[in-house]
Amino acid sequence: MNKNTQAPEDFELESFLPYRLSLLSNTLSEGIAVAYRKPFDLSVTEWRVIAVLGRFPGLTASEIRLRTAMDKVAISRAVKRLQARGLVERSEHREDRRRAHLKLSASRGRNLFRRIVPRALEYENRLLSKLAPEDQHLLLRLVSKLQQAADSLKSPEG
Amino acid sequence: MNKNTQAPEDFELESFLPYRLSLLSNTLSEGIAVAYRKPFDLSVTEWRVIAVLGRFPGLTASEIRLRTAMDKVAISRAVKRLQARGLVERSEHREDRRRAHLKLSASRGRNLFRRIVPRALEYENRLLSKLAPEDQHLLLRLVSKLQQAADSLKSPEG
DNA sequence: TGATTTTAGTTACAAATGTAACTATAAGTA
DNA sequence: TACTTATAGTTACATTTGTAACTAAAATCA
User: Fold this and answer.
1) What are the φ/ψ torsions at residue B104 (nearest 5 degrees)?
2) DSSP helix/strand/coil, A2
């Protein structure tokens, strides 16, 4: 399935799937940065927090973590900064004072969200439009499959 | 091609391609780390330098950069550490004293290379073996296509 | 040839990220 | 209830990574 045989001397990094996906992911990352980092001064983590809260207002930090596989420290930092910028608000949790519900602020936060999402989607669309429609579906299906496969290898005896 | 419409409120990060590829790439990264980071104390960049020099002995740092899209500072640091550990050797460039040819040391360096490559390939194989053979080909083809697409969007008016 | 610009690679500093320890609260248990 | 353990989230520190400035050598050019 790629040029690599089992002979070490023939190993080609360029054909190695983890390397290629890492490259691709970095390229896309740079690409969408144009949608949020440059114009709105947001880090990747901050954008993800905004994206998740835009869709699911009132989540706690832990719930964001469950949804995004981001680190809890990273989330804490992102929320702190977003709050300081008046983009995110926190409110008390009724029966647990350790937690806090988070949501985009009605004006600045949600406004930002509404401006970023179309840009992000536009980038994704421009990208996918370079593939034939059937390839677009295939790609997403295979990415899902591969993610499953990779996850299963993490647990003992995948 | 995914669940995202143009309505911001419906945006689902989980369906957003750049996000999914970033997740996938991170999962694979952790996965192959078992092949080189834990057992041999190598960073991703260090492993890449070793991989490239294993295949193409005598490259200069700039040539490594051209082949791998890694940053020149990152390469410089990786080479420095690998050299200190006796894994990489440098030799003078005949007609340009700014450059240096790099290669794995005959014993320790090449030895390491020969031990890592099978582990890396084994991980890749285990991963790909979870996909049907025709899906394996498809995946690699689509990754290539998408990389091309992403690259073309970087230059003015892709 | 001498002056200027480019290139290879390194060093120094700043910013981002990861890891561990910590605080506060809640839950479990005896 | 008192005591122990677990959880949510933060803070502090170490490590990694990125950016800019720098050094040395080579190439260009007048």
Assistant:
1) -65, 140
2) coil
Alpha-carbon radius of gyration of chain B: 19
Contact check, Cβ <8 Å, B149/A138: no
Query: Is any atom of nucleic acid chain C found less than 7 Å from the CB of residue B85?
Result: no
- Whether nucleic acid strand C comes within 7 Å of the CB of B80, the answer is yes
Å from the A109 CA to the C23 C1': 30
Separation in Å, CA of A38 to nearest CA in chain B: 15
- Tell which CATH classification among 1.20.120.520, 1.10.10.10, 3.30.565.40, 3.40.50.300 matches the domain A23-153: 1.10.10.10
State the residue for tokens 């832990």.
Answer: A62
How many Cα atoms within 13 Å fall on the side-chain side of residue B60? 11
- pLDDT tens for A16-53 read 999 999 999 999 999 998 899 989 999 999 999 999 99
The reply to whether B33 has its C-beta less than 7 Å from any atom of strand D is no
Nucleotide nearest to A72 (CA to C1'): D9
SS (H, E, C) chain B: CCCCCCCHHHCCHHHCHHHHHHHHHHHHHHHHHHHHHHHHCCCHHHHHHHHHHHHCCCCCHHHHHHHHCCCHHHHHHHHHHHHHCCCEEEEECCCCCCCEEEEECCCHHHHHHHHHHHHHHHHHHHHHCCCCHHHHHHHHHHHHHHHHHHHHHHCCCC
The fold for domain B12-154 equals: Arc Repressor Mutant, subunit A (1.10.10)
B73 in contact with nucleic chain C (CB within 7 A): yes
CA of residue B124 relative to chain centroid, distance? 13
Residue lying closest to nucleotide D26, CA to C1': B96
Instruction: Flag if A24 and B114 touch (Cβ within 8 Å).
Output: no
Give per-residue pLDDT as tens, B76-124.
Answer: 999 999 999 999 999 999 999 999 999 999 999 999 999 999 999 999 9
